[in-house]
Amino acid sequence: MPLLGCIADDFTGATDLAAMLVAHGMTTVQVIGVPHGPLPEADAVVVALKSRTAPAAEAVAESLAACEALLAAGARQIFLKYCSTFDSTDAGNIGPVADALLKRLQSGFAIACPAFPANGRSVFQGHLFVGAALLSESGMENHPLTPMRDANLVRVLSRQTEGGVGLVPFAVVEQGETAIRQAFTRLRDGGRRYAITDAVTEAHLHALGRACAGHALVTGGSGIAMGLPQNFRDQGLLPDRSDADALPAPRGAMAVLAGSCSRATLAQIGLARLHVPVLELDPLATPDAAALLAEAEAWMEGKLSEARPVVIAASAPPEKVAALQQALGREAAGALVERALARIAAALVARGVGRLVVAGGETSGAVVQRLGIATLRIGPQIDPGVPWTYAETAGAEPAGLHLALKSGNFGARDFFLKAFTA
Ligand SMILES: Nc1ncnc2c1ncn2[C@@H]1O[C@H](COP(=O)(O)OP(=O)(O)OP(=O)(O)O)[C@@H](O)[C@H]1O
Ligand SMILES: O=C(O)[C@@H](O)C(=O)CO
User: Fold this and answer.
1) pLDDT band at 105, cuts 50/70/90?
2) Would 241 be classed as within a structural domain?
3) Which of 83, 192, 343, 414 is deepest in the core (most CB within 10 A)?
4) Residue 31 in 3-state DSSP?
5) Which residues in 281-304 are b (16+ Cβ under 10 Å) and which e?
6) What does the pLDDT average to over 353-382?
7) Is residue 266 assigned to a domain?
């Protein structure tokens, strides 16, 4: 029976959260899509949806269905995972989904905390920073699907909910759990539904996590989850575990597929180009998924190896992304590239790839769905927020694939190389 039931709005975000829980001693399984049938045995179950950019009504319906399945399995607390860069549009989906979950859980208050210091995400006076830059000047203002042009999270979340949004500022968080709990009570009594919480260090996240022990719903990035396993240990519900991240040995050829256009992914491709074979697809010149697949299939012939990875990327800088979006429309451009990359993933696996890194949340969603994977067991982290995972269930195609789903902005510059030596 899961103690913590999690709903993630994209697939890389789900593995990021799962990695955090595993690292803090909870066995964790990631389930792809709304579960129908019994849930796998684990201390935490993370339901990975592809709801970040779906129409709000669809995101709400899927999240509620996931919540029902988690509650039916016995989950004692629900966690809504969204991006540490708060990726969303003014129409949602963070506000609408959190509103619906609070209503279902008959609760009137939750925190919203995307901070993740290990990856440079901090919240100060309600403003989200990526490294030293405000969110709105971090490159996220050019995101292909959810451009983030306002770093003030109180304002951003207020545009997505009719509930009031308040702030628990640094000065309070710094004082620790008791002061944070008192601030929550003040905000709730003052009619606020959400508290954006400042957090700059992991100590802040642990204190916030402790203060959320009795909350029916916690919302945020994976960082805020680091304090939650201890709450279950304190209640005598979670035993000490030393091998929560054990996976079977990897096998087969190695490959990377990149659909993320983030600065981090572009830099990772740039470095990989110096060391391993890299195919850069040009969807602007070839706006046709079947033709892109054919190009990749011809290129991969004779290149797949168990000694070093190959990289196939559609990723492009903002001006090229904008050009394709102008030609096809934003959603159609994304969908075309996702379709092509998903089909290329299937071609790689059919040719013996057993270790696959996928860069980009939407891209990972498309790939995992195309491969027919139902659950992922979570293993050790390669870099903060990116673990190796293992597709283990009957019906997974093929059984035994090792997958790393990399959030666009995560990973060191040599990620596409070091992943295969980890
Ligand atoms: N050359 C391109 N032109 C236009 N769109 C592209 C191009 N390459 C990729 N895309 C699209 O950009 C989107 C990138 O989103 P994705 O979620 O995969 O990456 P990300 O946002 O960087 O990662 P994350 O969500 O993990 O932060 C996808 O829909 C992808 O298909
Ligand atoms: O929180 C993050 O930054 C990631 O897990 C993510 O959700 C990117 O898609």
Assistant:
1) very high
2) no
3) 83
4) strand
5) bebbeebebeebbebbeebbeebb
6) 93
7) yes
Asked whether residue 274 falls in the same domain as residue 146, the answer is: no
CB-neighbour burial class of residue 66 (10 A; exposed 0-12, middle 13-18, buried 19+): buried
Q: How far is the CA of 249 from the centre of ligand 1 (A)?
A: 30
Q: Is 334 in the pocket of ligand 1 (CB under 6 A)?
A: yes
Does the Cβ of 114 fall within 6 Å of ligand 1?
no
ipTM reported for the complex, 2 dp = 0.96
Query: Considering its fold, how many domains does the chain have in total?
Result: 2
Rounded to the nearest whole angstrom, what is the distance from the C-alpha of residue 230 to the centroid of ligand 2?
23
Q: Whose CA is nearest to atom 3 of ligand 2?
A: 84
Atom of ligand 2 nearest to the CA of 116: 1
8 Å CB contact between 308 and 419: no
Average pLDDT over residues 279-302: 97
Taking CA 260 as the corner, what is the angle to CA 150 and CA 296, rounded to the nearest 5 degrees?
160
CA nearest neighbour of 92 among 16, 156, 140, 47:
156
Co-location of 222 and 274 in the same domain: no
Cβ of residue 265 lying under 6 Å from some atom of ligand 2: no
Statement to judge: residues 229 and 347 lie in one domain: no
pLDDT of residue 393: 47
Q: How confident is the model at residue 399 (pLDDT cuts 50, 70, 90)?
A: low
Residue 136 half-sphere exposure toward CB, CA atoms < 13 A: 8
* Ligand 1 neighbour 387 (Cβ under 6 A): no
